[in-house]
């Protein structure tokens, strides 16, 4: 996925309420149905997240604290995939008196409207589907009401369909059929999620079970749900047959030729009597240095009575446990769904192995020691980053992570083409024709994230981050063998060259190739067909490595074995953005400095492109061509600083100084990072003039502790906010380094604690970091189909679902907004980790 710009909203805790009562489902003030242990949300989250079916919309059930069902909607297929059509929400009305929530849904592609009326009836919610006009003929036998259940919460559990006992399958291995493509309901913008291998037929799952009443998970009271439908058949499907991120789908077809109320379900989630959510004791899974503040944040059900004390136990050398500290638990207050309390155990300073207890809750152990942060970036730098090197074979010990991808290179994207990952090609603005090979682009660069495209903006961020890391901290770590000549990377094999330099070189190689061969920066180098975009597995097998020749038939190879008729070649989307060109100019200037003396040729080429793009980009910006889909940010202040540092030319510095103070006056929080970056290159008077802004920034940092119990910026966007926490931590570390008398190290350490486990929902480290006792088990990496992780990944973390729920699944990797690490984000973490180590004098 391409990370959308997410807003960090400042929010105050919602007004306190006493929590849900036992008994019947009630429509509450936040406009969802609630009883103790059960929340039924009705379009608090609509299908408008940006990537179609994100599996977090529609009618949803949060069952004893876990969002186990979603996607309740009229849908057009048995097991909808991400790029199947989703309904627009045309209206949402809450009638408190009648106790109903009514939602209007519309599929514009079929001019098809429906209405869902939900009503609490005792402990159940009744769902009635209304049609004012009969189903469009094309949707007869296709449109149904669907509700999707989370596989990882139901697999291996039992269900009864009309009394017959069955088991939810751990593995997707049930019957399917095929139908002619002509019968396939349209997918998003006419894309196809599947490769029919020339059969002209698509696959459709067949139901696991059918009946009129299903009792799900009678063997687990926390997950038990009863669903009844009198007027149509209930069908249970396994969505994983078509897509690994599919859910179990319960559905009923809508009848043809009818209007009015056409379907009724009752859904009754079980509630365990007197259920109160277990406290979540948040703390740093990588531990603490002896002198630092140590505050655990305890997340509590509003029905839970906060305890007055918590304790710290030490695990002694003979294996016995000793209580070494007890202290007060102070209630912080309410923040969205839960109540929060804090336990300060800063007094515990002796190095050793410890755990916390709060009532019956005992945490896993953690370490207090001088060196606990020393290795937090090692997995990111030694494993995650090199695995994401494109156009190379990457090996680790006995394992090939991926072969060499995209040997056939990249074609010019045809004019006026939309793209499924939020890009697009306007008129062609290069010397190439649509679908003509642009030479030289299949070199260097990093996979964006859990997908395999080169996002130019993200790759610019990567090189910028790595150069910053190199120049500030000179990391000489050498654990990676990189041979551009062999196109081969071997992990854990030193080759005499610092790895960061090799990663800078790798990123720069692709970006310089773009500037030289295209003339400006491409927005992305990405898949041309959707069936390749959702690839899971070895990147080298996404395309066939052969040049596409339209004269051959699909799947046919030429006699010389060099081309094929399969249209799978990647495309370069080249529409010019002067803003992106200016960002590239900044990065090239920085890369040129870092590469000098290591790869002089590339260093010279980068500097040449920097000067050219700076000039052309500035002219285009001044002419009002602001570029496609991008804001102007704060002009080219950072570019000017980078160019000054690279060239020593005074006019760049003058331009920087002219821009930095107004930018700080406009918004100190957004400009302070760039202003601090300049400190090493400026004289003492600059630093003194900056001081009051740093004091102003400190005031902002202190307000965060009133905004939420964790004291870091918590984002509410559709992509969770670890990136903002990393950025906050890095800026706080810089401020603390240059102005230690104004800003102490505690702010940067707070960011570390949050990332490493002191956060809502659970207390696992959001970073797959060396040293964390309990990192998250699953991430949305390119190996997510194996419910696994790539070491060093940083999850976006706590995804906010409206109106009051933070979530991070640890048994289901497939929600990108919570579990996908990105190359730009993870190299930002590398800087944060290094800056923290530097700040702590390590
Ligand atoms: Ca992407
Ligand atoms: Ca190396
Ligand atoms: Ca090909």
Q: Helical amount among residues, as a percent range?
A: 10-25%
Number of strands: 43
Bound molecules: calcium ion
Q: Characterize the overall form.
A: globular
Radius of gyration: 28 Å
Task: Describe the main β-sheet briefly.
Answer: 9 strands, antiparallel
Assembly state: single chain
Residue ranges: pLDDT <50 for 5 or more in a row? 5-18, 627-634
- The rounded distance between the terminal residues' Cα atoms is 36 Å
Helix segment tally: 15
Q: Order the strands across the largest sheet as they lie in space.
A: 1-2-3-4-5-10-19-18-15
Derived structural class: alpha+beta
Q: What percentage of the residues does DSSP assign to strands (E)? A: 15-25%
Nearest-integer average pLDDT:
94
Using brief descriptors, characterize the structure shown.
842 residues; alpha+beta; nine-stranded antiparallel beta sheet; 15 helices; 25% helix; binds calcium ion
Description:
- This protein is α+β, with helices and mostly antiparallel strands.
- It is built from 15 helices and 43 strands.
- It has a nine-stranded antiparallel β-sheet with strand order 1-2-3-4-5-10-19-18-15. Strands 6-7-8-9-20-17-16-11-12 form a nine-stranded antiparallel β-sheet, with no helix packed on it. Strands 21, 22, 23, 24, 25, 26, 27 and 28 form an eight-stranded antiparallel β-sheet that branches.
- α2 packs antiparallel against α15, α6 packs antiparallel against α7 (600-622) and α12 (722-738) runs parallel beside α15 (823-839).
- The relative contact order is 0.11.
- The structure holds calcium ion (3 copies).
- One calcium ion (CA) is lined by residues 1-2, 421, 448-449, 451, 453, 455.
- One calcium ion is lined by residues 408, 543-544, 546, 548, 564, 568-569.
